[in-house]
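FIELD: query
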Amino acid sequence: MTLIIDAYFQDYPARKKVAEIIFKSGFSIRNGKIFAGDVEIPVSSIARAAGVNRKIVYYTIDFIEKNYALKSIFERIEPMANLRRVGPIVGWDVLEFDMEMNKLSCALREVLDVLSKKECHVRQVIGEEPLLSEGKIYIVLTKPVPLNILKEIKELPTVKDITLHTSEQDRNKLACAFCKVKACPRRALLQE
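FIELD: result
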């Protein structure tokens, strides 16, 4: 999608910034307005986020709606609840994987295969693969991650690094040499 936005907005850097914010936020454009699902987003909010005036946002909306290719993309975008930052607060574990460049689909298949063999309860999977950098996979698990599978995942050729985001307070339960551990301080505060 970045290439499409770059191609259409190459002569309009301010409009490009607006289009990127709309896309990355999961907003759609329909009938001259910006929406998050069925909720209308004020043009002034987008303008502030992009650091432009409201006219630029209106020009961007108009430009998108007059171009069939852009319109067909931007009118279909939907927001999605991303649970990767919420997981540790509600007691779920989140595994964050750094992937080799251009290996996201292969790595995702391998990691999910390991997790399914160990009967891990996956709540959400989010994958990102930028054009010019390493990919990332976030997997939200509703039960604690068995530490023995971290070694198995770390040995996969496509996985460069693992970070476990957890609410577990007992660091002795998390002692392993296969990942970085980030415990959620909010969860610790809620349990006091």
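FIELD: remark
Residues 188-192 have pLDDT under 50 and may be disordered.
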